[in-house]
């Protein structure tokens, strides 16, 4: 990932219009790479695989934990187990984690955001939309 990707920021939380081809479209813009969707805005996220999913990589989410009830984690194309320490850290902050394929996470995020729920998403970019 380039430093540009990790520092990209859109100042408000919005729905995602499309995903695939290694990125996401939202707010009439295109973002290449993975993405954090948080109450503080949409931010590039330098995580390209589940192996890079750590408490450290999720620190921006933990920093806004008091503004979240649910975190959707888009794991890419496949569903795999995430580190129990990550689940515990969010449980300790009373945040529900739902980890699934990126496409499912995007769709659920959009629904919960439209319902004005306190939702966030950590989405690993995928090449092919499902």
UniProtKB/TrEMBL annotation:
CDD domains: Mth938-like
InterPro entries on file: MTH938-like_sf, NDUFAF3/AAMDC
Pfam families xrefs: DUF498 (PF04430)
Source organism superkingdom: Bacteria
PANTHER family linked to this entry: NADH DEHYDROGENASE [UBIQUINONE] 1 ALPHA SUBCOMPLEX ASSEMBLY FACTOR 3, NUCLEAR PROTEIN E3-3
Protein known as: Uncharacterized protein
Organism: Devosia sediminis
């Amino acid at each position: 990932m380039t430093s540009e990707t990790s520092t990209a920021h859109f100042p408000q939380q919005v729905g995602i219009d499309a995903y695939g081809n290694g990125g996401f479209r939202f707010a009439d813009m295109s973002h290449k790479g993975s993405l954090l969707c948080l109450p503080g805005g949409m931010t590039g996220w330098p995580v390209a695989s589940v192996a890079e999913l750590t408490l450290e990589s999720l620190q921006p989410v933990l920093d806004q934990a008091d503004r979240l009830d649910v975190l959707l984690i888009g794991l890419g194309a496949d569903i795999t187990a995430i580190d129990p320490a990550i689940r515990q850290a969010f449980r300790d902050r009373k945040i529900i984690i739902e980890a699934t394929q990126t496409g499912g996470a995007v769709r659920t995020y959009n629904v919960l955001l439209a319902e004005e729920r306190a939702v966030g998403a950590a989405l690993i970019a995928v090449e092919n939309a499902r």
